[in-house]
Amino acid sequence: MASQYQFVKRYENFSGVDYKSSDLRFPEQYATELRNVKFSQTGSLEKRKGYQGSAAPKGGCGVFTYRKYSPTGAEEFEIIAVDNNLWKLTESVLTVTYTGANPTCDISIIFDVDTAQYRCQILEGSTQVLDFALGVGIDEVLPVTMANLVSAINALTGFTASATGVTATPAAFSDVVLNHDLISAPLTNPSRYWVAVNSPGTVLPGNATYKNDVNFENTSAVQLQNCLYLSNGYDEVIKYDGQNAYRAGVPTPGTVTTNVVLDASGFTGNSYIYKIQYLQKDAQGNETAGNYYQTDPALNIASASRVELTIPNILAASGFNTNCAVVAGAQAVVNTIAVDNGAGGPQTLTVGDTAYFYDAVSLAYVEREVTAATGASITIAGAPVTVADNDVISNNLRITIWRSKTSVSAPTVWYAVAEIPNNSFTASQVYTDKAQDAALGAIFLEPVTDRSPPAKGRYISSFQNIMLTAGDLEYPNIVSFSDIESPEYFPTPDNQFVVNDLLGDRITGLSPSNEFFIVFQSRAIHSVSGELSTLSFRVDQVANDIGCAAHASIKDIRGALFFMSLNGPRVIKGGQVPQGLGPFDNNPFVSRIDPRFDQISELDDEKIFQLKRSVGFHDRIGQRYLCFVPCESLVGVDREANANSIMFVYDYPRDSWLEWDNINAAGGITDLSDDLFFSERRYSGTSLAVDSCLYRFHTTNTYLDYADNVSPISCYWKSAWDFLGEASILKSFLALRIFSTEEITNSFTLGVKTEINWIRDTQSSLDVQVGSGGYGEDRWDLDAWGSPVEPTLTRKLNNNRVKSLRVVFENSEAQKNILVTGYELEVAAPYKPRFVT
Predict the structure, then answer these.
(1) How many alpha carbons lie under 13 Å from residue 435 in its C-beta half-sphere?
(2) What pLDDT digit, counting tens, does each position of 568-577 carry?
(3) Domains of the chain, with CATH numbers?
(4) Which residues contact 223 (CB under 8 A, 6 or more apart)?
């Protein structure tokens, strides 16, 4: 039979991988294998963007974005990293100004491939006046600092440089800048460093103790009432109010004793009972008042007397918000107050705290912002005050005292006596009550429910403005939830329920989903519907054969929960049965990438996915679900995510699964102002410990985006096997035509390989230059004319008669993107319609 020329046209097949289909029934729109690629807005094949080191090691047990809103509506977003403490990401801004006479002057901060380090380069006219090496920032014993860079620029004639904040941080963490025009405007360029969040001590010590445990998971977090709440299951729930991190809720006071002393200026009467409460007013203005202690028996005071109450304080070691100071000597009409801790030591209030104390000028307890603080003094905002020796100043942590009025029977109503500052430096304090009944204040509103602090839990979430915790190590199947009055009030055991499945599984995750609240176990899923606030709810089992492997993998995306199960990625909407994320063929209950998670036969422990520590994130800008799944190694007792780890990426507009490697996001993923950050967990040979540096994905939209800090990005994409529907008949693949019809910021070398007869080895290879020589020689970001390139390239293929062929595109060039819009294969077929061997 004479050969017939045919064309295989692949214009829409740049899609994700499919590991479920066989080679003979493979859908042409999917890839058989790929790594480190993504799709442009129009569907062309590109390399994923790379990242740069952004901050020195801190955290590693979770990273979150805290979104704080002021009463005026202003937004202030912060990245918070978690280890055994909390750390706030802070910017140091480099400002460079040019005052010279040259009409052109550019500055760049780039990674230089030739010297393998970041450099700051300044071009004044046609003369390079600065080429300053910045190092790499990561794993450097003596990094080049921001201060070093500022000095180098200031040494130039006509240039002025300065930097805000801490300038001892590595200059290599400065954001990449390409050819910024200093004539048009000064350069203002950020770098970043961590600042410890104020706290009364180590707030999450369990993270340091158990971080190498096989069952360890990152800390979980939820934001309610403008505050961030964090929980890890080992320690009490922690609250960050934008100023301090401390234990959420307030405790119930211990025993309060009363002593009646004759005093002509005091009061008389019958049936006097006191109620004592702790009250915390946080930096966002939320008030949390705990359970009360009631004195007993009632006092019957026959003669005018005063009552001395000995009230226990909340001590600094408790973990609550106990920043405090004691006035050192009487001081009149001052804004700077000499203070100590009552025993000559340093006070613990910090700038930004709200000082609560008695002011003799206004004859009232007042709140004032602390604007400066040393170990021996604090400075407050507002009008001057007068304070007495040993007056207590708390960080708005108060003790509220209530008292009944005289009664011939047991009292039923109590009234406000005073709100005094808590003294965290001493076990108790004495308050003297001489107030007449008529002088008492507001009526006490007795709590309707228990106001115990939040229950411990490895996982924390919210639903219907109520906070929920679960995964307590001692009670692994109990879900606890707060009262509607406050997320910090946990009435136990009333506000609890148990979830069980037939396998006796434990809870592994929590999340709201539309009108339902979903409770995951590792092999079962339960939905909660109804009203938690009125205890009118029900718990139903949704599935008993699939569950969630990692709470941190759960993300609410467009009304559905994406999560990682033990079998692969899944999606659930409300209380419906879960389905495969990126479903396979006509089976909605499995995913096309499920085979990647079948590792029963894997013999190398360092290649086994640790699904429990998967970390998910919704990349709203890229419209992708990212799920980092670590493989781990032990270095001594230290556990790190190793190079076998994979970032699984679901491009949901295109229903495509991608795989990215050389990304270590074991410490968490978050975003800030549309920038994407991730934290690693990696053993450093320099520090001889597991470090957690922060990285930021590039956003310059130039060729500089295509590097992983200091490493090239290697990518490849492998097509389906093409055999024209005839697997047994020989045909000849003659030529390949590649289309690259969109603009790109650089020329590149596209490695093209062909594999034949379903054998996964290279049969032939060639390199195709795209956008090089003549037009297309200049980068699009530098040439004002655009420098157009030829949109198609055709190459002959060195293939004899074969049964099937697969095309492979690859690139490993440093700082190079690729772009392939589609391709065609010219085929001569068939030869003889008979079986061949």
Answers:
(1) 19
(2) 999 999 889 9
(3) 4-48+714-829 (2.60.120), 89-196 (no CATH), 272-439 (no CATH)
(4) 66, 67, 229
